[in-house]
Specification:
2 copies of one chain form a homodimer. The first copy, chain A, has 321 residues and is of the alpha+beta class. The first copy, chain A, is 40% helix and 16% strand.
Amino acid sequence: MAVYTDITETELSAFLAEYEIGGLRSYRGIAEGSENSNFVLHTEAGEFILTLYERRVDEADLPFFLGLMQHLAKKGVSCPLPVERRDGGLIGRLAGRPAAIITFLEGIWMRRPAAVHCREVGKALAELHLAGADFPLSRQNSLSVKDWRPLWEQACDRADEVEPGLATEIEADLSAIEESWPARLPSGIVHADLFPDNVFFLGENLSGLIDFYFACTDFLAYDLATCLNAWCFEKDFSFNITKGAALIAGYQSVRPLAEAEAAAVPVLARGSAMRFTLTRLYDWLTIPDGALVQKRDPRDYIRRLRFHRGISAASQYGWTP
Amino acid sequence: MAVYTDITETELSAFLAEYEIGGLRSYRGIAEGSENSNFVLHTEAGEFILTLYERRVDEADLPFFLGLMQHLAKKGVSCPLPVERRDGGLIGRLAGRPAAIITFLEGIWMRRPAAVHCREVGKALAELHLAGADFPLSRQNSLSVKDWRPLWEQACDRADEVEPGLATEIEADLSAIEESWPARLPSGIVHADLFPDNVFFLGENLSGLIDFYFACTDFLAYDLATCLNAWCFEKDFSFNITKGAALIAGYQSVRPLAEAEAAAVPVLARGSAMRFTLTRLYDWLTIPDGALVQKRDPRDYIRRLRFHRGISAASQYGWTP
């Protein structure tokens, strides 16, 4: 829930003069997206999303993010297309922040996704992985396995404030994950944050993927593992194997997992749950109450971590060869 | 900044089936409107605003608010038109809240209005007053002069937390306003909250008025006085008489003020500043930090109160007969 930076009509009109999308007709701040300020923008040429990048996004990464969206859209992945400025660039400045305009995507994100949606997401994720294969830029994942311990060290002293015993519990999980993390798996462009609010549907058909601001280069199967966490747990934190099977089958209908990838799914899923536990825990402990940044409960992911601890094979998530 | 209630696609699709505006294509929560949850809604028939009325709006008032918008729109005032349901009603229920769909209005609200915009607002306000004359419903103003003292009594003990000496200062202002409040002036439908964020422009032309959720029956000139407060003070709280003159002239180009109304402008402006001082002060002292309801600084209106204290004639706001 956001809009950290407001903009005046004068600033915005001057900014729009750098584009070939006509004059300003309206803009309304939208209450979605947890990192940036987003506006639904109407111009004489139609409807767009205007994004102002806030401090949590590194400006140096923007050419990667926007270039990737452009690359994927041109390869037929349904995702927002960054609008080119008159000078050919994709990034401008507005109200002192880097800013970009992207096309508006119709569709609804599923507050309660069903197995049919999970299958579609799996398919779209694999298509994204294939389409990303020839994208020329790369970006190191700044929230991958090697980054978890430094993050944990900033939070461990206070972890028991969230739940007594948590410090010991997470420490053990983290060590186990670090020890069994695969050294090598097929890598490429991953979305890294493909939660339900980043996937739009029209009816049962997936209409687009959004929010590429965590995209990076990492194991492809790690992206699938993140989707298992984000899409296949119920509100009571039980794992729904029907949804897991649909997600993985959808993925494999486009890109079958290699044997080593399938074998790694349990540790990747556990690691992905650790990544979200740690960032949420860190935010939970450090962001003051009442700040505009949305704080998500880390316990949602601790519950997932506990589930993954008892899993030893991808088949337990619904995988079949 | 809002969206207090989120809605699922299933609930929304069922709600939309009560309307003749086709299937759902997208909805995005918007970060504007301080009292309700608002969404930009796309259906097969086009673009709309979906509003869920939160607890601060009395459900019994909705037929007045929505009926008024329908009445005004039909009389040519540019404001959102509530969309009729298949059963002919304007109000439904969604996610446990009363909800309505209104048409989407193009335009931009002026973060920094100029005199030309003030003139347009004055004109539109007078047109609204004339168009409201034959609206059959009425609604008592629940924030009029008689309501200020009860509100003040809930805040006065803690007023000095905002600024030392404030309790004595506001008490004196309130008594002075109560003593000199006019007994009788031309009355009718007033908007009562026509702040810049409730008025849209396309270029210099006013394209519409929104947010009728404070509308009520009161002195017409009181509405103009509220606009003097909302539109004609600079960010440093100085009064801009050029803007005041433009606002009043715009108003009088449609509906000239009676002599008694012009004579009452100073006390009405002072009273209107008191109304916003008191509601902001009350919210400031009672809403916890970090709540989603936006808290506005009461000192912005205390500064206005101090200005009005020294005014004795409408000409000092830019009025000419």
